[in-house]
Each structure stands twice: as structure tokens, then as C-alpha cells.
């Protein structure tokens, strides 16, 4: 049997993955995949796949939630095609990339992203370093138990991609039939899984591999962290302002009985620990409880993306922040945490924001605000916006 048709099954309740990491792509005759070659001739070479599986990860990064579905070059290549393919929507107008754009750190500059039958109920979360998070659940309200489960939920949403099986929509099985009739998918699924059969589990596995491959470790922060033993040391490549901001970010605040800060830092790391800057799974909401559609409050949003690449290196925001998109600048983000209001009905506010039962008052001066902003900007890289392996292959 050809190496290209080797089927490696890595099974769990959530996924099926091809995990043949010793692929010899030189053994793959292009004539076996003529439709892939014709459609993606300038973007995908099955004989010379992009490196998704063995990217450099800094030694100080220890979290990895990809162990049950390891990234492979083959699987992530299929995931890339699926991620950008508008055929995954009911009217061929929307892809995953429509709401998660590479140019904006895989988020959207719109507050609500446009779907086939309306718009999303929350702002589209950035997809940076999802692999390196201790939080295993996805969506702002953590309704998906894993990234694998999350990947097909927008496809099955009436408003987003339209294969809901309700409200007059086709079903997900109809999508599978649709993709099964597309020649390049017949070849790609055979290339990855050894068979042309398409299943939801295979789609989930490939999409999750591609999304987890999207990593950003070429920031000023990473250049500095690689030169020291731990985050608490001054980074030699940082300005005095950036090091001050780092210290404020990492150091817990000292509060008086009224919740007013009297010393220490501002404690961002209590929810967004370095060096991954992901969200603590035990976090409550951050006091932003608005809704995009309708009225009332929503106190269930307790997840957040990594703080990496909140903005581009020039300070330009990668779209609005928070699930409502209500925050549009780093200054506004810092300002929000500077004065927390305990809103009526918000029974899920993170207790770290309510010292002594009162909404925290950080009492930041302009120098401190500017220092924290300067530090947050050091978390942004450049490669994630331009690397071809994460770009549109069509």
C-alpha cells in the first residue's frame, strides 16, 4: 500500500485523525490527485506540504491541548481548504474565514459577523494560539466542550452557515453529500484518511488541526522572554516603559477594604497568565454583560482569546474586543478594568474583580496606563498575518 494511502487512526469520542508524521511526500504522484492540482496549483503542493506539524514552539510554552488530535501536515492542509471554502455554507457565500480573517489575527473588524441568514450573536473571537490554552472549552460562553466540537457548530447554525436542519435549512448530512460530489474533496479526504468517505468527525479533526496550527511567537515579548529565566526578570530588549507595564500586568494589586488599590500592580495575569496569556478556565465574566441582539443581560461569557495579537505591531486594533465588541482600543480595555461596576443581576462576575465585595478601583495614573498599553503591544507578532500556510488557498 502506498505511503500516501496509509491510514493512521487516532480515535476518541470526538475525532478521527491521520497521524502519520513520517509522510514521504515524494512518493505521492500528482496524477493521483489531478483535481487538487488543478484547483490549488499555485497554493498547495501535495508533494511538498507546508509545515504545520513541526513548527518551532518556545521552550517556555508548556501548555498543549492538541495531544488527542495531533497536528499533521496532511490534516491541517485539508483543514485549511475547509476553513476557506464557501461551499460549507448553504448558499456558498460564507466560509469560516469570512468571520475569522487572517489580516485581523483571525477575527473580524465588524462587531457582528455576517452570516447566510443574519449576523452572529457575538463578536468573532480571534483564533491565535488556541493550541496553547489550558481552557478546553470554546465560544465566549464555553458551550462547546472542545475545539473539535466547536468547528462544525457554526456550520449547523441557521444564521451563520445555514445547515441547521431547521427553519427550512438543509441538514449537515446534506452538506456531506454536497462535499462528497466535489472532486477535490474526494482526493483530499483520500489523501488524508485513505478513503473518500466524508464524515463530520473527519471534518472536525481537520479543521481543528488547522486552527491549532495558527501560532504567534515572533513578538517583542518572545524575543525578550527567550533571554531571561522567568517573566519577572526585566527583559533586556524592553524599554523602561514596557518593563514597567509588564510588572504592572504580572503583579497582584493590593486593595483596601473598599476595593480601592493602594499598591502593587493591576493583576491582569490572575486571569491571563504569562507566557501563553490565555484565559483561566475558572474565570467568571468581566463585567461586560450586554447582548448584541435584543435586550437584557448575558452573564455567561467567561471565555476569552489569548491576549496575543490584540493589536498589530503598529497598535492598530484587530477589530473590536469583548463579546459585544464594545471595547475598541487598548486604552479603553485598561480603563474598563480600572473601575468595575457590579451590575444588578450579574451573579457571575469574576470574584478577582470584586475585592471585599466591591468593584475594584485600580486608580491608575496616566503613566501606568501608558505602560500597560506599551506592554500589551509587545505581545503582537507579524508572521501570523502573512504566512501563506494560513492563507486562502482558493
Automatic annotation (TrEMBL):
Q: Which domain of life is it from?
A: Bacteria
Where is the major localization of this protein? other
Q: Which Pfam families is this protein grouped with?
A: CCP_MauG
Q: What cellular-component terms does GO give this entry?
A: cell envelope
A GO molecular function assigned to this protein is:
heme binding
Q: Which InterPro entries match?
A: Cyt_c-like_dom, Cyt_c-like_dom_sf, Cytochrome_c_Peroxidase/MauG, Di-haem_cyt_c_peroxidsae
Domain (Cytochrome c): residue spans on this chain: 74-183, 240-380
Question: Mind listing the UniProt keywords for this protein, alphabetically?
Answer: Heme, Iron, Metal-binding, Oxidoreductase, Peroxidase, Signal
Q: Spell out the protein name for this chain.
A: Cytochrome c peroxidase
Per the UniProt record, the lineage of the source organism begins with: Bacteria, Pseudomonadati, Bacteroidota, Flavobacteriia, Flavobacteriales
- What is the native source organism of this protein? Flavobacterium saliperosum
Location in the cell reads: Cell envelope
Q: Which residues cross the membrane?
A: none
- Key word Iron present: yes
